[in-house]
Amino acid sequence: MNKKILGLMLAMILGTSALAGCGKTEEAKEAEVKTEETKTEEKVENTDGELPKLIFIAGDMSNESQVFASKMFTEHAEEYGFEVSTLDGRGDPQIQAQVVGNAVAQGADVICVNPNDASGIVPSLEAAKKAGVIVGVYGSEIMSDTPEKARDFYVTQDDIQGGKLAIEAILEKYPSGCNVVEVEGQAGHDAAIKRHTGFTENLDGTGLNLLASMAPTQWATAEALSITEDMIVKYGDEIDAIFCHWDNGATGCIEALKAANMEDVVVIGIDGCQAGYNQVKAGDQYATISIDADKLVRRCMEVARKAINGEEYSAENLIAFDMITQNNIDEFPVPEW
């Protein structure tokens, strides 16, 4: 049975199985760049002379980080020798599972997926891999006891490090410690889980007192604003700092703080996008922990090309963050997204 037929079958049945793995937990490991060498089980060959097809499956194309990633995949297509297209997971785990099947049906040789749900996506990726597709995970990792059954490689930022850097940034402002609240990233997202872990598991001995943590259902500015409003109602002037898992969420935190006349609260975000960059520049945000999204895309395509060629490649790829504050912001280019 060829990939297209399998893909059509997957697209019909995976919607109901997409959430089967939801609710699983996994102890987050200390992140290091690893070099687990592996080879594809079966080298992908195109006998018709066409370029291999790489499909980027975005988590949600209403998220500007996903739009930028899609743009970079397209811009680097010729350099790495791929025909590239993008499909949209629309911020919904079930829809994204169906989209994985659609990608297989469209004849994808490689898919690079940014999962909306780190465990819920596993069954659809396992099915795609069984259909002969090389499966890469972008900007995240999946949650599975046997991830190698569902993906060939992943490329992501070092999210454990991201949580640790948030502590360092707060301590720069409050070296003796202070009261902190945490606005987490999208519930169930691997990046959010690891950022939370890197933050909460390294608080001992810092003097930082975590008053509360809360996760939104989406990476949505409005939800971050609402969560911050709730925390302000509960804790008020006790709050000295906020760690928000993403810069556009920090925008909502800042708005809520200004409405409550609490403009001296330190806000730390992650992404290094235009919003975070501008908020740091303006002094509304103390630091943005910056991701080089173009570097993530390039590594994905580099590893995918090696997999296509049947060469050895690293299955686990972690990219370090940069810390941007007002002290060094002029050393970094204005982000495109």
TrEMBL record:
It is found in: Cell envelope. InterPro entries: Peripla_BP_I, SBP_2_dom. This is Sugar ABC transporter substrate-binding protein. Residues 25-46 are annotated as: Disordered. PANTHER family: D-ALLOSE-BINDING PERIPLASMIC PROTEIN-RELATED (PTHR46847). Residues 58-312 form the Periplasmic binding protein domain. The keyword Signal applies. Keywords: Signal. One of its GO terms (cellular component) is cell envelope.
